[in-house]
Design brief:
By secondary structure, the chain is mainly alpha-helical. 69% of the residues lie in helices and 0% in strands. Helix 1 packs across helix 4, helix 2 runs antiparallel to helix 3 and helix 2 packs parallel to helix 4.
Amino acid sequence: MCMQCFANHCAVRTRIRFFRLSVLVFEFLFSDFSILKINLTKMASAVKQVQNYKDEVKAQAEELLRKGIPESILKLNKILDAPQFKTRVIEVKQDINIPIPDPIILNDLPPAKKTKFDNSISKDGTRVLIFPSGAIPPNKHITDLMDIIKPHIRKLVEDAIVIKMWISFMVPKIEDGNNFGVPVQEDTLGEVQSCESETSSYSEQITRYLITRAKLISKIAKYPHVEDYRRAVQELDEKEYFSMWLTLSEIRNRYCTLHDVISKNIEKIKKPRPSNAGESLY
């Protein structure tokens, strides 16, 4: 009887342990399933957001081609016809407020005590502590043109990025078959990338001009009697004025080229594979 009770007791304990183990396994599996479900939900949400972004880029690019780029071309033409860009080069000149000091006759000075100098230190030019006429402003004609041009540089780069992404989204899946329009997409994409990189360099040109002019002004302050430095500033301003006009013209021309190339090949860009690509040609 005692053996029977012991056996029953062991059986009950075994069932309890099995039940507890089953509960633990169920909780573990259910926990993993919940985590997997959450991860799948997040993944699906991320994929949907990316797809929405792609759709927005496509819509934005098509709106640019339909309306944005033509309006930009007309606006740039109007700016190029404005008086700022029709000024004669000679009118760009601006006086430099650094006077030429009067010559000093050494023989008229009172005798001074002898001072020992360190021969290893050379001091050339005029020591400038402050400009007598105040700060030296930049050439206002040039800076006004810069303020006009810089927003258009940024806008062209932004538009080129949107169009580049739009074409990239149109590239079909890589597989064997009729890929007649893919080379057209690649050539157009190369044109857009070239436009983006070259337009970005226009901002560097502005910075280089300002740095070069500042160095020349420093030279004038140090060597006020050297007229070549003053003439160099004038020549630099005239050159930059022409460069500003050329830059804005190039921005306009880039817009025209992009619009022309894409408009002529819009069907091949949107549908690089014809709808009957899978059908037999015979």
